Amino acid sequence: MKKYYPSVRTIHLYVGLFISPIVLIFSISALVLNHTDYINRTNPIKKLPDIKTSIDKIPYDTTDLQTAKGIIKKLRIKGEIDYVSQNDSQISFPVILPGLTTKIKINKQTNEVLITRIEEGSLRATNFLHKMPGPHNVKIRGNSLFMQNWRMIADMVVYLLLFLSASGVFLWYFLKAERKLGWIVIILGAISFTGLLLFLLR
Amino acid sequence: MLIKKITYTNRRLHIHIGLFLVLFIWLFSVSGLLLNHSDWKFASFWEERKQNIKVTPINIPPGLDSIQIIKNMLLQLKISGEVNNVKLTADSIDFSISYPGHVNNIHADFKKSIYIQNEFSYNIWGKLRNLHTFNGANRNNPSLQPNWLLTRVWRFSMDAIAIGLIFLSFSSWMMWYKIRKDYSWGYLTLIAGFAIAIYFVFLLRW
């Protein structure tokens, strides 16, 4: 097994360097998600001026998502359509980019459009990315190119992180000087992990 | 000399913090994948949930506020967990109490002196998914803090794991920088990683 050590070390190093900035996104956003109150106090959201406009020929005869896609194409707005809400008089939906939420509301009778935008900042952008694509609105999730790309990146980072942790254990095992302390740390980690899960899951 | 000592300590910390976190990293990696792939049939949990509805008499002393009522009820029911969605009216109180893999929606009727428990238990996949998101955050009122000790402990653990991962990232840069001449592709891989992160966090919305 030791003959693999140099190549595993090289791959561990390059993979680690590559995903480390994206791991930072997930780590910082985990702190943001756990301390939303603090972030709201120190980093308030900024409402941008509303835009009123009108639109012609909305294709209502197709699915809600296709209608919303057609509308944002005409309005030249980019982003992930979160969900679509529609009734006889209006259609409304949020379009999200990391750190910017645009809400579009259209009066079906007059075709008048109200666009409201909320600038949420970079910390909330990490927050959004952390939760995406996520378990909600699965049928329409990934309706923008950036979300399709992010879905791939998020998956890739997780698989590479699993590889990094496994290869890290492999590399440690061949460091005789760190072996004793390493075992103690692994056992402490395992005790904390199982202890917490036993209490939490009963 | 000092730089040498810092480099040595940094390397040791990188190894040992990584080893300590390894099981937590696997847990959050797997549960993250489950959350992003609700369509994985083998990991379905909602369809496999166990539901149990119980109606039981209960005695609520008069003149208590909502917190006191809930505390009193939890003592009588001998249950614990994170309390959410509290709705108090003159005749009833509704709330849910949860821990990973388990949700109990409780309705207490003061006039009839009964409470109805609508209890959901999830399989291992549901528990894993819940563990990933179980931080006691209240979407409707972010200023509310977790009200169950174990939620606070788990949230603290999540914070510690996040800080640990941030340290592992920084320490990896330091370790590579020392040997950058032998691993010159490191520039490219690090820049590529940063380019992706900066694009998604900062540039996409402009």
Kindly estimate the percentage of residues of chain B that lie in beta strands according to DSSP. 15-25%
Largest sheet of chain A: 6 strands, antiparallel
Radius of gyration of chain B: 24 Å
Largest sheet of chain B: 5 strands, antiparallel
Helix content of chain A: 55-70%
Question: What is the count of distinct domains of chain B?
Answer: 2
Q: Compute the number of strand runs of chain A.
A: 6
Given as residue ranges, the uncertain stretches of chain B (5+ residues, pLDDT < 50) are none
Task: State the total count of DSSP E strands of chain B.
Answer: 5
Topology:
The complex is a heterodimer of chains A (202) and B (206).
Chain A: H1 5-34, H2 36-42, E1 46-54, H3 64-75, E2 80-81, E3 85-86, E4 90-97, E5 100-107, E6 112-119, H4 121-131, H5 145-173, H6 176-201
Antiparallel strand pairs in A: 1-6, 2-4, 3-4, 4-5, 5-6
Chain B: H1 2-36, E1 50-57, H2 66-77, E2 82-88, E3 92-99, E4 102-109, E5 114-121, H3 124-133, H4 149-178, H5 185-203
Antiparallel strand pairs in B: 1-5, 2-3, 3-4, 4-5
Helix pairs in contact in B: 1-3, 1-4
How would you describe what is shown here?
Chain A is built from six helices and six strands, in the order ααβαβββββααα. In chain A, helix 1 (5-34) packs across helix 4. In chain A, 57% of the residues lie in helices and 18% in strands. Chain A folds into two domains: 1-44 and 121-202, no CATH class; 46-119, no CATH class. Chain A starts with a helix and ends with a helix. With 206 residues, chain B is α+β, with helices and mostly antiparallel strands. Chain B has a five-stranded antiparallel β-sheet, with no helix packed on it. In chain B, helix 1 (2-36) crosses helix 3 and helix 1 packs across helix 4. Chain B is elongated, with a radius of gyration of 24 Å. The relative contact order of chain B is 0.13. Classes of the chains: A alpha+beta (202), B alpha+beta (206). Chains A and B meet through helix 1, helix 2, helix 4, helix 5 and helix 6 of A and helix 1, helix 3, helix 4 and helix 5 of B.
